[in-house]
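Worked example 3 (structure in, sequence out).
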């Protein structure tokens, strides 16, 4: 499963029975149960008497004013869509009912192309009114893959670029219809900011082979659904992750951002800040995939290129707010997690004079639900 398991496998977080010790006063055959005391949770995290990391409150924003339109996106790393729809379909439907998303993104579906038609039919039955699109891994079976479901109609998807290291401005702009792009306050929202213009699978040849990204172009903004590569056991993909994927992805987003705002949602496979790691002072953290200094610095560079971590912008000091918990270590009941999933947004969407603004961003982590990740949602408001 995930190489992050090594960041959790200390005795304090495993679901183990209490230790037993011999009580000499009672004789050799009698054993007395002694509860293990939880280890102190390191810097920045409070722990209660049960050994659970305390999640600070993160209040939701109020409703969007009635005179403004809104758009909501919801994504979830489901770690296998067959199992989700077979065993925990109610969990997905509950999140959809609660959030009523205009765009639903499912990450790490693990389907092959031959399975897509059947799953689309199943999703059409469960989510009438949504149109879906899948991209699948061609590298290996049961691996990666992202899917999107949009309210209303969805244009036929187009493939990504032809495999060169970075798509040129001309290629990207020709795909994304420059005649319909917006660069200011007037045109996009007046025409219909919520109209879907196009769908694009992938970013370049390598990304397409692993099925990691779909871009939705709305009239007024782009939405990118992404599953960033994991650096892997022994950090064997760290160099590729930092020097190729992150660099190409950053350039791709910056290119899109030159024409209209960009919203990015997905599993970034990195815990950015100390407060995003439950045991940040553990010795293995700097050497574990997702928490290396190199990955965390690379994410900083992405934010510095003009993007905002929307949840952290709204709740800058909140601790204990995670999106991933090791299932093998049974860490979710004790809230011992990492924050690996994010909604990012162009910084322009926080400008007071922007016709589109980020209204709210939240984690759907209220219960110990299905899987090792929780869903994340975002709402945009329109003038």
């Amino acid at each position: 499963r995930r190489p992050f398991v090594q960041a959790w496998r200390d005795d304090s977080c495993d679901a183990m029975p209490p230790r037993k010790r011999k009580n000499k006063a009672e004789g050799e055959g009698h054993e007395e149960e002694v509860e293990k005391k939880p280890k102190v949770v390191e810097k920045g995290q409070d722990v209660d008497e049960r050994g659970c990391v305390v999640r600070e409150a993160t209040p939701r924003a109020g409703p969007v004013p009635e005179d403004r339109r809104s758009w909501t996106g919801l994504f979830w790393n489901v770690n296998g869509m067959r199992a989700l729809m077979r065993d925990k379909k109610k969990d997905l439907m509950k999140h959809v009912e609660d959030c009523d998303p205009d765009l639903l993104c499912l990450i790490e579906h693990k389907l092959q192309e031959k399975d897509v038609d059947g799953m689309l039919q199943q999703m059409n039955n469960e989510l009438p009114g949504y149109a879906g699109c899948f991209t699948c891994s061609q590298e290996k079976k049961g691996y990666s893959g992202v899917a999107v479901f949009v309210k209303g109609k969805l244009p036929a998807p187009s493939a990504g670029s032809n495999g060169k290291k970075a798509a040129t401005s001309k290629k990207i702009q020709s795909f994304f219809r420059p005649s319909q792009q917006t660069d200011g306050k007037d045109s996009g929202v007046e025409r219909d900011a919520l109209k879907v213009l196009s769908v694009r699978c992938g970013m370049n040849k390598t990304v397409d082979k692993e099925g990691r990204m779909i871009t939705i172009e709305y009239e007024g903004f782009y939405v990118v659904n992404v599953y960033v590569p994991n650096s892997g056991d022994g950090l064997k993909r760290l160099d590729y992750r930092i020097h190729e994927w992150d660099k190409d992805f950053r350039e791709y987003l910056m290119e899109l951002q030159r024409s209209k705002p960009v919203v990015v949602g997905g599993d970034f496979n990195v815990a950015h800040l100390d407060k995003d790691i439950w045991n940040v002072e553990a010795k293995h953290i700097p050497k574990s995939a997702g928490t290396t200094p190199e990955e965390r610095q690379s994410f900083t560079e992405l934010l510095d290129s003009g993007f905002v971590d929307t949840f952290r912008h709204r709740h800058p000091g909140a601790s204990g707010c995670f999106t991933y918990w090791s299932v093998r270590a049974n860490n979710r009941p004790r809230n011992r997690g990492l924050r690996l999933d994010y909604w990012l947004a162009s910084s322009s969407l926080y400008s007071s004079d922007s016709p589109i603004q980020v209204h709210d961003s939240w984690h759907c982590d209220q219960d110990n639900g299905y899987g090792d990740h929780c869903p994340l949602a975002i709402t945009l408001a329109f003038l």
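Notes: The chain is about 25% helix and 25% strand. The mean pLDDT is 84.
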